[in-house]
Structure formats: C-alpha cells, structure tokens
Design brief:
The complex is a heterodimer of chains A (404) and B (301).
Chain A: H1 5-15, E1 22-25, H2 28-42, E2 47-51, E3 64-67, H3 70-81, E4 85-86, E5 96-97, E6 101-105, E7 109-120, E8 125-131, H4 138-144, E9 149-154, H5 162-171, H6 179-198, E10 201-212, E11 217-219, E12 223-226, H7 237-240, H8 248-255, E13 259-262, E14 267-271, H9 274-288, E15 295-300, H10 307-319, E16 325-332, H11 337-351, E17 357-363, H12 366-375, E18 380-382, H13 386-402
Parallel strand pairs in A: 14-15, 14-16, 16-17, 17-18
Antiparallel strand pairs in A: 1-6, 2-3, 2-6, 4-5, 7-8, 7-10, 8-9, 10-11, 10-12, 13-15
Helix pairs in contact in A: 2-3, 5-6, 9-13, 10-11, 11-12
Chain B: E1 11-14, H1 19-31, E2 35-39, E3 47-48, E4 61-64, H2 67-74, E5 78-81, H3 85-97, E6 102-105, H4 112-123, E7 129-131, E8 137-140, E9 144-147, E10 156-163, H5 166-178, E11 183-188, H6 199-208, E12 214-220, H7 225-236, E13 241-246, H8 270-279, E14 283-284, H9 291-300
Parallel strand pairs in B: 1-2, 1-5, 2-4, 5-6, 6-7, 10-11, 10-12, 12-13, 13-14
Antiparallel strand pairs in B: 3-4, 8-9, 8-11
Helix pairs in contact in B: 3-4, 6-7, 7-8
Chain lengths: 404, 301
C-alpha cells in the first residue's frame, strides 16, 4: 500500500525524522491559508506547492513549483496544479488527477542526497542505501553508476548500529558540513529504522535528503510503502488510504477477496494463483504478440474462493469494455473445477455472454466441472492444455477483429 | 528414495482444528501421510478424527496445546503449519524450538518483517529446514503428502520438481504424469520475498538423491534466487534441469500477486534469469505448456 508524501512526512515527524514545515491542502483556499501560515511562521516569502499523487517524478511533470512571491503567487500556483492531469514516467500517458496539495516552506539547501530503506530479499535484511546523487531516479543511478550507492544491511536481532550510520555518513562526505552533521544524520537514520520496523514498511525513501547551510539534515521528500500482509496490526492504515489513487476495479476485487491486475490488452483472464497468472500472460503474448493479442486483465481467484466469489470475478471480466475474448485457465488444487464452472455459468447467465469464451480446466473435480459447462448451453470452446487454450483465444480475437 | 519426506516421516499439524488445517489434515491422512499429532493452543486433549487411504479406519490424531508436548509424546519430526498470518511466524519459531527437523509453512500473507526475524533464527539452527511460507508444501508421491497439493495428479517416479509458484507446480506435475513420467519429490518453496529453503538448497538435495534423475525448476521474476541456482547448476549439478521462468512479459513495477514478483530497476528480469540458466546448461521451456517435454527431450540424450 502506498501513501502520499504529506502522510509520509507526518510519520517522519512522529518518529523524529526532520522535515520542513508544511500543511496539506485540498482546495485553493486551503492552499492560500497554508501559504499564509508558513510565511508568518518562517518570515520567508518562499513556499513550495507540491502535487500529492502516489506516482513519482512529480517535479519533472510540472507538479512541484516554487513560489518566491509569497501567498499570492502560491495561490496562483495552487490554482494551476490542483485538478491538473499530472503525467509522469510512473503514471502512464493518461496521467493522474491532482486532488491534494502539500504547501511547504522553501529552504536554502547546500546539498541533495539520497537515503532509502528497503527489504532486500537476497540478504533477507533491511537494507539502507545512500547516495550523493540526490534528486535523481535511484534506479538510474543503480544501473549507470552503481559505485555511487552505499549500502548497509541491518541485523534484525541487533538492530541498526551507530557505526553503520557513520559508515554511510562518512561515505557521503558529511563531515565537511561540520561534525554535528554526522550525528544529525545518524539520529535521522535511527528514527527512519524505527519507523520502518514499527510501521511495517517495505520501502522508506527520502529523495532528496538535503543538507542545509547550517548543517542540518532534512527530508525534503518522503515516500513510504506499507507491507499489505501486516494490515491486521495497523488499523490506522485505512484512514491513510486514498481510494482515488487506486484502480476502482482492483479495489472492488480486493473487497471481494480477489486479486485483480489491470493490463493494456484485449483478453480477459480468470486464473488461480499468481504464478499461473503470470504464465498465462506469457503464453497469450507468446502466441498473440504478432497479432495484437494480449491480456486485458487478470482475475486471480486464488485457492479458496467460493462460487459467489467466482461469479463476481467473472462478472468483473464480462463488464470490462476492453475484453474481446475470455480465457479461463484453471489448475484446480484446493480450488475445485466444479466451483469455477458453476460461477462462470451463473455470471454468464446473468449478464449474457457476448464475447468468445475459451475454458481450460484441469485438476480437482475436473469431470464435474466440464459437465456443468457442457450442460449449460453456453457457447464455450474447451481447451486441453494451456497452449491449446492460448492459441484458441488468440484465434478468437483475430476472427472477431476480422469480421468487423 | 526421495528428498525431505517419505513413508517414515512423522508429521504434526499446527492449526489442525482450523478450517484449512482440518480440511487438509484429513486429505493428507487419506493420502497415507503419517500424521501423528495436531497442535492448537487451548485445544489439547481433543481427538482429531480422520480416515486413512480408501476409507480405511485409523486411530484418531491426538491434539496438543504446544508443539513441544506433541513432539515429546509422539516423536513427530516434521511440522506442517496452517496457522493464520498474525500467529504464523510464532508457530514457525515454536516448531523450530521444539526440535522439528523440517517445518513446512503453508500460510499465505505473513508480514515480511516477521519472516526476517524467523530467517535470522534459522541461521543459528542449521539442522532445521523451513519450506515456505506461502507454498503448497512437499510431496513424495505414493508415500507422503504434506501440504495442499492435489495428490491424485502425482505419480511416483524419478523427477524432482521445485517451484516458487503453487499452481505452476501442479501444471508441471500434470504434464509429467500425462507423459507417464513420475516424480521423486515435489517441493513448493513459496513466492514470498523472505522464506526458507531456496532453489540451491533443494537442487543440492536432488543432486545427492540417487533416485532423482532429472529436475524441473520453476522460477519467477524478482530477486536473485534463479541466478544463484544457475551458478549451482553450472558448478555442481550433473543431472538434467529443465526450467521455466514466469513473468517474461510482466509490466515493470506491476505486482502480480506475489509480493516478490516486482521488477525493481530492471534487476531480476526474466530475460536475465533465462540467460543465466541457459548458460549454465539448463534448458528453459519456451512456454509453460512445454515444461515436461523440455525435460523429456533432455533425458533422452
């Protein structure tokens, strides 16, 4: 789960990671009031207006602007940014509508750095990464100049040690800002580690982390991802969730206990299991890539779905306007094939079946499942293997396009 | 012969009175697995009724309050965990502490922070093996099924299967059985970012097992486990390995269900993994429908 920058910064404040003064705003008037408050508090006319969307790259996309002329200019910028369709490298070409702003004090900075914490699956540790290349995409730094990324791994029993923070601090050359800066950086790291642990994060990123003229270190940006698996011990997460940032269909699926992934193609897919979902996508693209056929979405019913959930899942696929054909690919383990078949039939009866349907069933209760499908009177093309099913669904899409 | 589990394995089931635990414990017993105990705190003293293979009668399974007591009373050496996510990491630690040599955790949805701690404990207890979490379990066909896989698709034989994905394991097994090729042992290692045994650990056991003649390995995008497996295959493995990597066409940054299956900054892509495996002498199936035939072609040589 992702949260906004201003929410991340509220957590930073709670745990003691220094941040600039700032206030969230949902309307232009609120933005103006926030700017006024900041100018009063900081005795400076410089404020920053920042679009709050979950995607990164906001600055480049025109979603972060500095107002040097105080409240009036801040209001004008807020008017421009609020409601705009912000396009960044992470939003896709359609962009994301800006519904929230964060108004922040402007700071005179000396240097921009990068600091991030992630779960590293290879060492099975929390890894802290730091770099002198602040403000850049860290993926790009990792790919082009990996020697500029310093990493320490935290022992989960011992916790983050002071020497590890010092390793990064001296590695970044922070001593040249005064020896207090080393201590300030180490304190910030400890606070970030505590936040990471207690809030069950999978990612905490400060890009840029800035060193001010007075030697202070401050988080100028903040990005936090939570571990969805830990939501049972964080009841407060629900209030941090911004549903407008999420795909409405993915959200509906989540509420129904299903896993939905929206993609760009034209074949709707009903599968069980994440690995099978990926493999089904691979095989459709394998046979369909030269013919313009690819998955439009995936509904993963997992292992324990009941008939109502399967019905709901299939209805969601049927309703998607992108879907030109449907591929049901199930290898029943705990999931029984007759439950899938009954759910598919119930959904198709209710909403009608206007696109070709290819079904490949295998595993537990497969005979019963096939019987339910064949007796339903629905027009279903049966497939014997994954490859057979993928070929048939590709052919079905091609035939449809041709008849148009 | 086989790896990890066999006829002699004495299994205890943690969470045996829960929905998933009781359902699958019954299925396991019906398959012929030697389930000797169940554990549910506060339910000690109860009896868990189940029938053996082909409806045969058998004594009820005693339920205990703690794993330590279950191990002491029954001599169980392997634990299968169905405890829900909030208590699952604790259940793994309890099994390790009680002296179980093999712990198989089926539970899906354990917080990664909990697993980081478990993993650290495992590093100090080298004799204990953990399989999972978020996995289908381990089966030696005809002898012992521990987990949630459909038993009937398997056939006893000489091919080892190791996989990060549950349903793709069934897919590979289904293909092998359809060709008349049996399996020695099938191990689902799970799709979570932090877990127990990885590919190299399982491949090492398959390489040492005289009854395993070839291996199917099913990987996914994300992480570096497949690359480490490729290195092992190149340096140590003399048996043929056919592989499949799911997620060749996954869009970058999109989460496909498994938390691990995210490509971060081009690292852990399918293309990198496939190249590493092929350079190591493994053969990678072009589609998920070709896993068994790819191995079959290698075995004929």
């Amino acid at each position: 789960m992702k949260i906004h920058e201003y929410q991340a910064k509220q957590l930073f404040l709670k745990y003691g990671v220094p941040i600039p003064k700032g206030y969230p705003a949902f309307t232009v008037d609120e933005a103006e009031a926030a700017a006024k408050r900041l100018v009063d508090e900081t005795k400076s006319e410089v404020v920053v207006v920042k679009a709050q969307i979950h995607a990164g790259g906001r600055g480049k996309g025109g979603g972060v602007k500095v107002a040097k002329g105080g409240v009036k200019e801040a209001r004008e910028l807020a008017q421009k940014i609020l409601g705009m369709q912000l396009v960044t490298h992470q939003t896709g070409p359609e962009g994301q509508k800006v519904r929230r702003l964060y108004i922040e004090q402007g700071l005179a900075m000396e240097r921009e750095l990068y600091l991030g914490a992630v779960v590293d699956r290879d060492t099975r540790r929390i890894a802290f990464m730091a770099s002198t290349e602040g403000g850049m995409e860290i993926e790009k730094v990792a790919a082009e100049t990996p020697e500029k990324i310093l990493t320490v791994f935290v022992d989960p029993i011992v916790g983050l040690s002071a020497y590890q923070s010092r390793q990064l601090a001296f590695g970044l050359g922070l001593e040249k800002h005064g020896k207090e800066t080393i201590g300030k950086f180490a304190k910030l790291m400890s606070a970030l580690y505590e936040l990471f642990l207690k809030e069950d994060c999978t990612l905490c990123e400060i890009n840029p982390l800035v060193v001010l003229k007075n030697g202070d270190v401050v988080a100028l940006d903040g990005k936090i991802n939570f571990d969805d698996n830990a939501d049972f011990r964080h009841k407060d997460w629900e209030s941090l969730r911004d549903v407008e940032e999420e795909d409405p269909v993915e959200l509906e699926a989540k509420h129904a206990g299903l896993n939905y992934v929206s993609l760009d193609g034209n074949v709707g897919c009903l599968v069980n299991g994440a690995g099978l979902a990926m493999a089904t996508m691979d095989i459709i693209k394998h046979f369909g890539k030269d013919k313009g056929v690819a998955p439009a979405n995936f509904l993963d019913v997992g292992g324990g779905a009941n008939q109502e959930q399967v019905t709901k899942a299939f209805k969601m696929i049927l309703r998607s306007p992108k879907v030109k054909a449907i591929f049901v690919n199930i290898f029943g383990g705990i999931m029984k094939c007759d439950v899938i078949a009954s759910g598919v039939v119930a959904a198709a009866r209710e909403l009608g079946l206007n696109v070709p349907l290819v079904v490949r069933l295998e595993g537990t209760n497969v005979e019963l499942g096939r019987k339910i499908l064949s007796e339903s009177g629905l027009k279903i093309e049966a497939a014997t293997t994954m490859a057979d099913g993928a070929k048939k669904v590709v052919a079905a899409v091609v035939a449809q396009e041709a008849s148009r | 012969m086989s790896i990890l589990v066999g006829k002699q394995t004495k299994v205890l089931v943690q969470g045996i009175t829960g929905g998933a635990g009781s359902f699958h414990a019954k299925q396991m017993i019906e398959y012929g697995t030697n389930v000797v105990a169940g554990v549910t705190p506060t339910r000690g003293g109860e009896k868990f009724e189940a029938t053996g293979p082909n409806g045969s009668g058998r004594p009820a399974v005693p339920v205990f309050d703690t794993v330590a007591r279950a191990v002491k009373e029954t001599g169980a050496d392997t634990s299968c965990i169905f405890v829900p996510p909030p208590g699952a990491a604790d259940a793994i630690l309890e099994a390790i502490d009680a002296g179980c040599a093999l712990v198989i955790c089926i539970t899906e949805g354990i917080p990664v922070m909990d697993m980081i701690k478990v993993r650290k404990v495992l590093e100090t207890t080298p004799t204990v093996r953990l399989v999972g979490p978020n996995c289908p379990g381990v089966i030696t066909p005809g002898a012992c099924k521990i987990g949630i896989m459909p038993g009937h698709i398997h056939k006893a034989g000489h091919i080892g299967v190791v996989s990060r994905s549950g349903t793709l394991t069934y897919e590979a097994v289904g293909q092998l059985t359809a060709l008349g090729i049996g399996q020695s042992t099938c191990v689902g290692i799970g799709g979570d970012p932090v877990g127990g045994m990885d590919f190299v650990d399982v491949l090492t056991l398959f390489q040492a097992d005289p009854d395993t003649h070839g291996v199917i390995m099913i990987g996914e995008i994300g992480g570096g486990a497949e690359e480490r497996a490729a290195k092992y295959i190149k340096e140590k493995m003399t048996k043929p390995v056919a592989a499949f990597i799911a997620g060749t066409t996954a869009p970058e940054g999109k989460r496909m269900g498994h938390a691990g299956a995210i490509i971060a900054g081009g690292k852990g892509t399918a293309a990198e993994k496939i190249a590493a495996l092929e350079a190591a002498g493994a053969r990678v199936a072009p589609t998920p429908s070709d896993m068994a035939v790819t191995l079959q072609a290698m075995m004929k040589k």
